[in-house]
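FAQ: What does the model actually see?

It sees only this:
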Amino acid sequence: MPKEWAAADYTDVRSALAGLYEKRVAKLEEHALFNDYVAAPIFESEIKAKPAVLLIGQYSTGKTTFIQYLLGGTDFPGCHIGPEPTTDGFVAIKDGRTTRLVPGTTATADPNSPYCNLSSFGAAFLNRFAVSEVSDVPLLKEISFIDSPGILAGEKQKQRNYDFLEVIKWFADKADQILLLFDGHKVDISDEFKEVILALQPHDEKVRLVLNKSDTVTTAELMHVYGGVLWFLGKVFKTPEVKRSYVSSFWNEELKNEEMKRFMSAERDKLMEDLKSLPQGALNRKVNDFVRRLRHGRAHMLVLDYLRRNTPMMGMAAA
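And it is asked to produce this:
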């Protein structure tokens, strides 16, 4: 017999949320056209998905190398590294029984996949999306990563044949943490990158900063670059709090800046601790997001009810 979902199943929070949504919320949202005007329906696979970390940055900031470092130097299917823009699509890196690359069309066709809603972005995007499953990596058993294409400058960024900004918003909404990567060599932040950062403002609390390749510059140069990044972000994020940042070179090589070696090694350790603690807060975030969605849905329904009561019907005199 199918399991009856109580109002609170504290033995399995994710299953309780999925059951409550399916039995009590989904039909109300459909009836009120909430999914057409506000947000897409939630799949059980999304609620039960592992915490995800979204990586965003301009090209050649070391996003793919950064993921390799976190995976203990393990290569993953679909990774390409070079000084030019090499990652030309979104790649979700997750734990798997075997190491393989699943095309986007196949990955989104599975209703048990947390990425099934991505099919709404069309075939052009699905050709630029893949799921990279990697076996026997301890960190991936707890969290997953989303590697995004490097953000280009000028018309090249606008020539993508799918809505890049909307895709970023979708992943940001589902992610438990967002890492903005900057290159320690430069603070050249394009208008297109600024546009993406502005789109992340609703998820301000998830954002962390990573100043990568920091040991390849002198200490004085690093201070100038770090100050420039914080100055720029202070104009974008309208919050008094300073974003948590990690300053180091995140690759599987020895640090070269002897003066900052101890500090940068500690920064590497702090980042790993932050990521490993992510699953502990993921359940709280899912519950908070669920409650926020219910409140949003209630407000939507109250507005519709008001309009229905106060809009004259055809053939009837206005009140």
